[in-house]
Amino acid sequence: xxxxxxxxxxxxxxxxxxxxxxxxxxxxxxxxxxxxxxxxxxxxxxxxxxxxxxxxxxxxxxxxxxxxxxxxxxxxxxxxxxxxxxxxxxxxxxxxxxxxxxxxxxxxxxxxxxxxxxxxxxxxxxxxxxxxxxxxxxxxxxxxxxxxxxxxxxxxxxxxxxxxxxxxxxxxxxxxxxxxxxxxxxxxxxxxxxxxxxxxxxxxxxxxxxxxxxxxxxxxxxxxxxxxxxxxxxxxxxxxxxxxxxxxxxxxxxxxxxxxxxxxxxxxxxxxxxxxxxxxxxxxxxxxxxxxxxxxxxxxxxxxxxxxxxxxxxxxxxxxxxxxxxxxxxxx
Length: 332
Description:
Blueprint: E1 8-10, H1 20-28, E2 32-36, H2 42-50, E3 57-61, H3 69-78, H4 80-86, H5 101-110, E4 115-119, H6 125-133, E5 137-142, H7 145-152, E6 158-162, E7 168-169, H8 184-190, E8 197-200, H9 206-214, E9 219-222, H10 236-243, E10 250-253, E11 261-264, H11 267-272, H12 282-296, H13 319-326
Parallel strand pairs: 1-2, 1-9, 2-3, 3-4, 4-5, 5-6, 6-8, 8-9
Antiparallel strand pairs: 7-11, 10-11
């Protein structure tokens, strides 16, 4: 894995921040960048694969069970005031959506993607084997020792040990009980494996990277630190929210997508976190028009401001400059 995984990994950030430009810049700066296939159509994923090269990765969401239609319908009714606020229609429920999983795996095979990571679950062993035969190294994201044991049974080349401080979606397969209070060091210590482990979550400065490498990780994955990178596709409303100092805290919420995710606290998380059901991606589809309208209106109070606990250390600048500040040995 050391020929592909550099000490610093720029995390896949679905929903816009991860772009081919960000991945290319990360690679050029000596890090490993990941594209995010989540939410995207297969043609959009293919276009991004054509735009990158070198030692890069692609992250794919593993589909879960269908959502509980009654719970999602109740949540749909609660969201009506938001639809009225932004002048949009709430869509019909989509309860069984696999995010075109098989097609995205086929694209990874066809393009011989060097690194393919999975989150939200464990792909079938046949999927892992097919990718490996195509030349890919496969990584599976886990949040506990139990998840690691199940992931290892699929035969991956490495694991990603994700702590609760990570921004965006947690990889947990137990969304009902996830609270996000387990540190990355704790998850790294709990995940005993014969394969390399990448540590992820809550990384803000070079000292965090050094601490996790010293604890046994082969690399450290950072996402929030690159949200304000020049090459990132982060929405203007989130950039302004962070740069203006409006971000005060993060919260783990299912309010936007039906799966636990860490976001900057705003009006939407305060209002809907207590009532949000488990149900990814049904809830994601349900709130999509609201979030799109809020983003169009530059209203950061109505969008999913994914970010980890290290958000206060995020800075603007080129990806190369940000990579340099996080590399082991950096004085920043």
